[in-house]
Structures are given as C-alpha cells and as structure tokens.
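Forwarding the complex inputs:
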Amino acid sequence: MAGLDTPLTPLRFLERAAEVHPDSEAVVDGDRRITHRELAAAAQRLASAVRRSGVGEGERVAFLATNRLELLVAHFGVPLAGAVLVAVNTRLSPQEVAYICEHSSSRILFGDSDLLAALDDVDLAVSEVVDLDTGYAEFLDRGIDEQLPWDVEDETATITVNYTSGTTGRPKGVMYTHRGAYLNALGEMHHQGFTHDSRYLWTLPMFHCNGWCTTWAVTAAAATHVCLRAVRGEAIWGLIDDERVDHLCGAPTVLTTLATAPEAHHLDRPLTVVTAGAPPSPTVVGQIRDLGATLVQTCRWRVREPG
Amino acid sequence: MAGLDTPLTPLRFLERAAEVHPDSEAVVDGDRRITHRELAAAAQRLASAVRRSGVGEGERVAFLATNRLELLVAHFGVPLAGAVLVAVNTRLSPQEVAYICEHSSSRILFGDSDLLAALDDVDLAVSEVVDLDTGYAEFLDRGIDEQLPWDVEDETATITVNYTSGTTGRPKGVMYTHRGAYLNALGEMHHQGFTHDSRYLWTLPMFHCNGWCTTWAVTAAAATHVCLRAVRGEAIWGLIDDERVDHLCGAPTVLTTLATAPEAHHLDRPLTVVTAGAPPSPTVVGQIRDLGATLVQTCRWRVREPG
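Prediction (whole assembly, two chains):
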C-alpha cells in the first residue's frame, strides 16, 4: 500500500507556494527580491545546470556560503536535481572544509568569493569550484528551460548531509532524508508559528542543520525569507524595522547580539524569537522580553530508538 | 531504510499532549472537563476494553453518536486497540446504518440512547450494541490498567472507514490510513491556525471525515475540544461566550445558523470560522465578517494520481 502514498519531500512546499501564492515575496536578499514563482524557477534552473554538469542521482553538491539567496535556492534546486546538498560550516578551517568535500564525495563546491579564497592552499577533491559572486550566472547558463518533477521516488532518499563541527574529532556526516526534512519542517512551521504573512530573518546559519529545517519550513507556509549575511546588531535591527521581520531564531549568543546592539529598541510589532542549544541565561531572557519580543525555547521532547 | 522511521499515526499526538501538557484542558463536554492526561487514560481504558471484548487487529468498531466526549475518545482508543473506527452519519436511515454495520463487518456498535432506539426494527449484524448513555461504564469495566503503545507497525494500516452519505446509491466506505490521517491533521492544524491555546467548537460532525481530521488536529496542537451535541444557535453562542471558543468549522448552513441566531452579536475576541463544501454565498460571507470573525474557505489545491 505504500506505493499509493505520495512520497514526502520538502520540494512539494515550493511547488505549492509557487502555485498557490506565485506573486507573493519568497526571498529578500539585500536589493534582491523574488517571488515564489521566481524562487521555483531559480531552483529549476539550478537543478538543470547541476544535472547538465554531470552530477548524477544521489551525488553530492557542497556549498560554502553565507545566508544568501543562492544557498536558499540550493536547498530546493540541488535535491530537485536528484542530488544531495552539503551545506558546509563557514567557520571551519580550510583543512576541515577540504576533508568534508572529500568525505562527502562532493562533485561541485559552490562558495562565496572570500570563503573560497581561504581555500587557496588546500587540495580540494572536487571536479569543479564555482564562485557564487563571479561564476554563478555562467554556471546557470548550462541549464535549459525544463520542468523537473517536484518529487522523489523514495522518501527515505537522502536530501542533505550535514557535518558536525568536529569538536570531538573529525566532522561526522549526518544524513537527512526527504521524509525527515519534510516532517521536521512542518514541526518548525507549527512551533515557530509561521503563517503566509510571516517574515523570517536569517540570523541562524543555513548550514546549521539546514537552519533547523527552516530553509524549508518558511516556504512550507509560503512565507518570506529575509537573508542576513553576518550576525551584526546594526544589520539585524535594520532588517527588523525595514523589512517588518516578525520571526527569527538563534543560539543564546545571537540573542545577546540582538538585545545589546546600540540599535536595540522596544518593538511596536510582534517578534517571535526562537532559541535552542544551550539554555539562555535569565539575563538574556529578560532582555529579549524587555524588547517586547516573545521568546520560545525549543527542547527535545524525546528521542525514540528505531524499532 | 523505511524501518528506521517511526510510523506516522495520530496516536502520537495524544501521547505527546499527555506528556508535554498533561494538565491542560483537552475536552469540554457540558459539565465534563478532562485534561490531556485524562484523555489519554480514557483512550487507554477504551482500547483495553475493546481488546478484551474480542475485537482483533484490523477489526471494525462502529459509533452512531453525536459530538460527545466518548466519540472523541474513540478516535484515539479504537485505533490504540489496533482496531478501525467507523463513525456513522447520525442522519442516515435505520436501514442505511444497518447496511454500514454489515458492510464494514463492525463487531461492536456504540451509540447515543436515542439514536440506537431508532434501530429497534432493523437487524444489526454486530456482536454487541453498547448504549453510551447507560452501558458505557459497564463496558469499560472489561478493561484493565494497561499501557498500550501509542504506535502502529505499519503507517499505511487503516485507522478509520468513513461512509459516503449514499446520495448516489448505497453508502461507500473510504479507508483512511494512519499516515494519511496524521498528515491531514497537520494540514488542518496549520491552515486553521491551531495553537496550544486554541479552543475549538465542534459545530462540524465528528462522523464527517472524522471532522475533517480535526478530531486529531486539535490534539496535535494540545488545544481544547469543546463538544456540541446539536447545531443550535443558542448553544453555539453560549459556548463561544462561556468557553472562549476561538475556532469552529462548518458547511455554509452552519454559518447561517451562527450568523442569524437571535444570540448572535459582535465578537470582542478573535474567532476563526473555516468553511468547506459548497462555497458560502456573499451574504453569508458578509454576515460572518460583520460579526468580527475571520472566515477561511478551504479548497482543494490539487489531487495527484498515485505513481
């Protein structure tokens, strides 16, 4: 009977957003603003170019990038190509990045110019390196106008591999399935309270567990991603005010940056701040609440062993 | 790899609600108020009694009941017993009810006293009939204190069979799977906007597609069910006011009852009204909005053929 069920995959979130809310804002990244229809088209284009670059089903594609439009597109476009996304922690050493590229057998490494520049002295076991700031448009030119299906045959196929930060040895890869990513994204959507009107600020790195699957959860609600390249108080508060941000996430250190920035001020609109990792101190909790924000602390309900 | 995934089932919603929010209100039915811990215990007790009455894995248990606590408990307790719930439309003729009992091979028929009384002249192909108003406590006495697992081995197993209303011939049975019910409930939770604080009024019959899966969706959010035995304006408005209801669903006819009741008045709190089926007329849409309620009309995005 399993064959009667449509496989679960976050790809369906973007397919739906593009059909039901084609003209609403999907992503803001600096001066760039795209709709759900355009986000879907960008993912299709990337997927086509990835395939035509010789990346096969289940092969890996690595990104070493800040929280930018291209990395968000990759969360849909790479799996749409049938490939697996490896979003690499930008704070790792060049040797660790090289290790992850090799260990994951990544075929292509995409990256921010300055992040790639730091890799000049290491050997990279990839077929190709694409600079997102200078070579991305040319890469996309390999793609053709095709409509790949927003679907997978097997929902337990791998969608991403995320590496640990290597504090207890070499980074270890964790495989996420399409099914797991879909379900976790729905959980994030509910607990963060995303609706179609939400505007989510990317204070959490997309490379960190795919932004707790918020890369997909925001789009599941057909809401708006607001990109943020670096966690600085001025930029955060500028976007909260100018882009009417009402949701953001972060470790306690991000909360401290938010609360202690010179630009910090009492909010006149709702803002939901979700934190996880180490518990925030009572001081930080008080600071966030004093801003007029709602603080949500996520915790693990229970982990079940399989079978 | 599928074996590594925990099977999807709405049973997990109640397990979680009872663990995370044990003391918050799960159901209000007239003077009866129970918490999530008590709802979980009631489902366990029913499941135990159903099993000890000889109902085997995958066998069917029918309910001919109004929107009462016992029918809500049955949405969890019957599947918890490994059995399949058949919630019968209370507006069908005695012959149609008898047909559904026979066609579904239901082992037990539970029902409201007055609904069962109407079946006196028909042959019922069930082993046992239990009157929810006079014989339910005695039935539960067969159960023992056991903790059945909130789990299924196969998520594609049937959880309920819902029959059509027979407008084009005999009623036809539609099988819902644990997986389908789980996913549809999450969809309802999102689109109706249920949170832990929501208070949902049962203007929609629970027998109608399991209340659009809202029987499970409200509990998925660890929110509160407010039962309603009959759709009458006075009762609806009494519960909206006294029980601080903020969500309800119904076909356009329910909306008309809501808007045209003598007790209707402008709301001083948010109320989300979700409608489906025939589109509501502009008059009804205007009336609902004039109350200060938010109207959500659900529509089918797209039906995909398998494979």
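The first helix of chain A runs from residue 11 to 20.
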